[in-house]
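The following block was generated as part of the benchmark described in Methods. Ligand: cobalt (II) ion.
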Amino acid sequence: MNETYRKVFENNREWIRTNLEKDPDFFKHLAKGQSPDFLYIGCADSRVPANEIMGLEPGDVFVHRNIANLVVNTDMNAQSVIQYAVEHLKVKHVVVCGHYNCGGVAAAMGNSNLGLIDGWLREIRDVYRTHADALNAIEDQHDRYNRLIELNVLEQCFNVMKTAFVQKSYAANQFPQVHGWVYDLANGELVDLDFDFEGSLKKIQEVYDITK
Ligand code: CO
């Protein structure tokens, strides 16, 4: 265990060397500030590293991760991240990225009492309830699981768009656009769910318009 722990610092020194070889000012540039184009909201799962799967470097993507990539109205952490990314960093794209084989979504489809996390995962049960007819019509359990993962991503896209920060910024600047993605652990592929941002925003604002 200690070996694994110590290795991290060796890795870090190696990583510094590699970056400085490519660009002697690598860290100097980064220290000056950040202006990423992307806010990425993803799952905390260790198998889904945000920058790597997008092929992006430090400075390119502002990242928020939690179990099952949820955007909860009362979560001061996620809401602060969205406000900061939209109003101050002026990101052009907000991405909600789920992943197949998500343990959080699997737990929300089961009946085990898991303690504190049950409250968090209830958001996913709420997504299931909203789409119960469509989900129950899918006979294969694994296909239903995958579809819930996708629907959860889309619901979290809606949750991002329910915020005044996003609605106001889009009205003024035509950004950010909100996107829903799913990452496939089995082959490394990033799938764009082709979320209809413009149409969805109009629909959301029939009820959630808070821009005035
Ligand atoms: Co997950």
